[in-house]
Specification:
With 297 residues, this protein is α/β, with parallel strands linked by helices. It folds into two domains: 1-53; 60-296, LmbE-like (Rossmann fold, 3-Layer(aba) Sandwich). The protein is built from eleven helices and seven strands. A seven-stranded mixed beta sheet has the order 3-2-1-4-5-7-6, sandwiched between helices. Helix 7 links the parallel strand 4 and strand 5 (224-228). Helix 3 (92-106) crosses helix 9 (253-261), helix 5 (135-152) packs antiparallel against helix 9 (253-261) and helix 6 (174-188) crosses helix 7 (203-219). The radius of gyration is 31 Å and the shape is globular. Mean pLDDT is 80; it is low at 1-9 and 21-77. Zinc ion (ZN) binds next to loops.
Length: 297
């Protein structure tokens, strides 16, 4: 091999070596770019799955009363945050917080409604009607009305709990009623509870309030508590005004009115034996606003 040839060979092997090095570098870069793309993708997946699990934001004050919109959360599965609404009679939940229920279900919260009684004695107590409809018939009618109203407000049928205590006598059933409420709250662990105030004029409303509050204290859970107002006693407003908060339900005011209309046994002349509806138009007007007031503790 001549010197020239030797020089040429070393030159060519050097360039071959350089080429190999360049190819290796190119391959390495390509591989590392692919890896980083893969990792990014993985990060995105992790992020979106975290987002799906967190169906409802932590700051509840903002979601109830603020302008924040969380429509993306609708239909999410998994760890949905729970809300429980207590109604002494079917219709109280819709009158007192129907707009807020619709708003909350729309935002993706898992809303449950507990009906303490079926309100079967409304016609007997208020209008003196014992037949056509009988209390048994009223019970069935009001339960069906509650189911239709809840559906309009976006509450799943499986989330409706009818405790079937006798209408007008909750005071005499506080022990078994508390037992039922304790079990429900222990199981659901709600982050918010809506219930009537303890100074309401109607006995079932007052005792629902007491039973719910007792149960919360016994379980030592700390949900946010919102008391709605249906039959305010005199002086109630003055005393509790400073703890009042307002929920803007403008977007859901129509839905609430449709839900109220489902309670035909209460809002219309329902049977031939009655001359006036149980709930007057004047009373119902109070629940036609674009906001709902609650007393917080
Ligand atoms: Zn009631």
């Amino acid at each position: 091999m001549s010197k020239k040839a030797k020089k040429g060979l070393s030159k060519s092997s050097l360039s071959a070596f350089m080429m190999r090095l360049a190819r290796l570098f190119f391959f390495e870069t390509k591989l590392s770019r692919r890896n980083s793309q893969f990792l990014n993708k993985e990060r995105q997946v992790t992020f979106s799955s975290t987002e799906n699990n967190t169906t409802v934001p932590e700051d509840d004050t903002a979601t109830i009363f603020g302008q924040a919109s969380f429509h993306n959360f609708r239909g999410s599965v998994g760890t949905k945050k729970k809300i429980v609404v207590f109604a002494p009679h079917p219709d109280d939940e819709t009158l007192g917080c129907g707009g807020t229920i619709a708003k909350k279900t729309n935002e993706g919260y898992d809303v449950h409604i507990v009906y303490m009684t079926n309100g079967e004695n409304s016609h007997q107590e208020i209008l003196g009607i014992v037949l056509n409809p009988s209390p048994q018939e009223v019970s069935r009618i009001r339960q069906a009305e509650a189911e239709r109203a809840a559906k309009l407000l976006g509450v799943n049928h499986g989330n409706l709990i009818f405790l079937n205590f006798e209408d007008g006598t909750l005071e005499k059933a506080t022990e078994p009623a508390r037992e039922r409420v304790l079990n429900i709250l222990e199981k659901l662990q709600p982050i918010e509870i809506y219930y009537p105030g303890e100074t309401e004029l109607h006995g079932d409303h007052r005792f629902t309030s007491i039973i719910v509050k007792d149960s919360i204290n016994m379980l030592r859970i700390k949900p946010k508590l919102y008391k709605y107002i249906i039959w305010p006693s005199k002086g109630q407003n003055k005393k509790e005004l400073k703890n009042e908060v307002v929920s803007d339900i403008l977007k859901f005011a129509h839905t609430k009115q449709f839900a109220i209309q489902e309670y035909k046994s209460q809002t219309t002349i329902f049977s031939r034996t009655q001359r006036r509806p149980i709930l007057s138009n004047r009373f119902l007007k109070k629940f036609q606003r674009n906001s709902e007031k609650f007393i917080v503790e």
